[in-house]
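Final report, Chapter 2: Outcomes

The project's central promise was a pipeline that accepts a single protein chain and returns its three-dimensional structure in a standardized token representation, suitable for archiving and comparison. That pipeline is now operational. To close this chapter, we reproduce one record exactly as it appears in the project archive, with the input sequence first and the structure output second.
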Amino acid sequence: MTVVSIEQLSKDIQASAQRIEEAGLIPQSRDQPLNANDLLFYLTGTSMPMADFLRQHGLFLNDQGLNFDITQFGLIGRMANDVIAQRQAADMQGVWKQFDLSTDEDMDSNGSYILIALEALEILYGARLV
């Protein structure tokens, strides 16, 4: 398990801003550079059951910072891809029922955004932690 303080996460994001933006992470405010809050936005807009799933697999925020287990990213990513695929197939059972999802916004928050956040974390810390 890795813990990165919010301050360090912001520094790391700013140092790799171009690659992070190419991965799809965009600043929530166009007049501010990318920072930790932008990444956290992508991770915190999830349903409560999804937040529980992420926590169980080592991806959560606490008073120490962002906690993650990079070895769990494959599993989390597969689940996020399932959210997207099942919505596109109009299959509102499976993960949609499991994670209490119902709208297209849920597909973004619980699928696409999670994939973008995982890719950003891989860019920042993947090579360091392998």
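Archive annotation: Residues 104-129 form the longest helix (26 residues).
This record, like all others produced under the grant, will remain available to the consortium after the project formally closes.
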